[in-house]
Specification:
Helix 4 packs across helix 7, helix 6 packs across helix 7 and helix 8 runs parallel beside helix 9. It contains 14 helices and 13 strands. A hairpin with a 7-residue loop joins strand 3 and strand 4. Helices cover 36% and strands 16% of the residues. It is elongated. By secondary structure, it is α/β, with parallel strands linked by helices. The chain has three domains: 88 residues, Outer Surface Protein A, domain 3 (Alpha-Beta Complex), CATH 3.90.930; 38 residues, no CATH class; 226 residues, Rossmann fold (3-Layer(aba) Sandwich). A seven-stranded mixed beta sheet has the order 7-6-8-9-10-11-12.
Length: 386
């Protein structure tokens, strides 16, 4: 064991005997009582020393072997301790890719906050390498989502779209100006490869055969298809139990969600039936809007809003892929210009929808830091003051 105090949380002394790890309340932890010698000794728990050497250096600083061991246990129990040797074979394979590790450094630091066990960050990154995601759409929203997922270590990111790149598709972090005129699928594939921190594993390699789709992100260039998704398009995903997340921009309004868990949360069919119940004119208008979408010369999708939608959608997708249900599970988040205040609206299963989600208790969305903010090691309490 080569323990290391996680560097992601800034450290400060609240008083002469209490140390706070972290600034923000969501992940802050308070440790106390801590004397000056113990506080100085924590600087040596940096992953370069094994337990025996730490005990020896602790003794030189006046700390008994028992106090060193107890400190290690307390730090581990508070989720503040990492270990440079744990994580299993897949994590070790990630460690052997120094260039990828450098690129993923901020991601690993973030994951260390929500994966409290030692080596949890590397396990998560290693798991991402074996995940397959499909992004439907390569416009200002979809292309950026694909690039973020690939850059965050998702091993297989496929982008499906037709036609050729138009100047209006170009966006920072997405398709560049040099891609104008290229086939959208081809340009998006090149973007994903460039964004990835390392070569994705291929089928037949040690990491396993081609995996099934873990998630489909529906981010069409025509935001109407995300705002009012077609149940027929989603029918195969519902039938095969493939989770899918909607995201897009329509008329200066951005949306992220819902994340559909087939058979458990509301699907496109549920949303359409619910809207018809509330607005009998909806089907008539929807037919007109869908038939007119090709005549719209320019979509109202400014870069700021598109970037915000893409970032939030990618974050929700990564949360789901890492094993947590994001706030878009069974809900849609909307923000409209000019105030851009994100507001959630619940999306409920419909009793008449054949997806059968209405008869199932919906999973409860969780946030990565739920229940963890401000854990105190000596006497539990708030760990952050602001």
């Amino acid at each position: 064991m080569y323990p290391k105090v996680k560097p992601a949380l800034a450290r400060a002394w609240r008083d002469l005997q209490t140390v706070q790890f972290g600034v923000t309340p969501a992940h802050a932890v308070v440790l106390g009582p801590v004397d000056t010698a113990t506080g100085a000794f924590m600087d040596r728990i940096d992953g370069t020393r094994g337990i025996d050497l730490l005990r020896a250096e602790g003794a030189a600083m006046g700390l008994s072997e028992g106090r060193v061991d107890e400190l290690i246990r307390r730090l581990a129990g508070a989720g503040l301790l990492d270990d440079a040797t744990v994580g299993g074979p897949r994590a070790q394979a990630v460690r052997r890719r120094p260039e990828s590790l450098e690129r993923l450094g901020p991601d690993l630091a973030s994951l260390s906050l929500v994966r409290r066990e030692p080596g949890g960050d590397l396990r998560a990154v290693a798991a991402r390498r074996g995940i397959r995601v499909q992004v439907r759409g390569s416009g200002r929203v979809g292309a950026v989502i694909a690039a973020v997922l690939a850059g965050a270590g998702v091993g297989r990111v496929e982008v499906l779209d037709g036609g050729r790149v138009q100047p209006a598709d170009v966006a920072p972090g997405g398709l560049g100006s040099g891609s104008v005129g290229r086939l959208r699928a081809e340009a998006a594939g090149a973007l994903v490869r460039e964004a990835a921190p390392g070569r994705a594993p291929r089928a037949g390699e040690a990491e396993g055969p081609e995996p099934a789709l873990s998630l489909v992100v529906v981010a069409p260039r025509d935001g109407l298809q995300a705002w009012a998704p077609d149940p027929e398009t989603a029918a195969d995903w519902v039938a095969t139990g493939t989770p899918h997340l909607y995201a897009g921009v329509l008329e200066g309004t951005g949306l992220v969600g819902p994340l559909v868990l087939p058979g458990a949360t509301a699907c496109a069919g549920c949303m359409e039936r619910d809207r018809i119940d509330r607005d009998p004119a909806w089907p008539r208008m929807l037919v007109q809007w869908r038939s007119a979408h090709r005549r719209r010369a320019t979509a109202a999708c400014d870069l700021g809003l598109a970037s915000a939608v893409a970032g939030l959608a990618a974050g929700h997708a990564l949360s789901f892929l890492d094993g947590r249900l994001p706030a878009s599970t069974g809900a849609r988040w909307e923000a409209a210009l000019p105030s851009l205040s994100w507001e959630p609206s619940e999306v409920r299963p419909h009793v008449d929808c054949p997806c059968s989600a209405a008869g199932v208790a919906e999973p409860t969305p969780t946030t990565a830091g739920a229940g963890r903010g401000g854990v105190a090691v000596s006497g539990r309490g708030r760990g952050g003051s602001g």
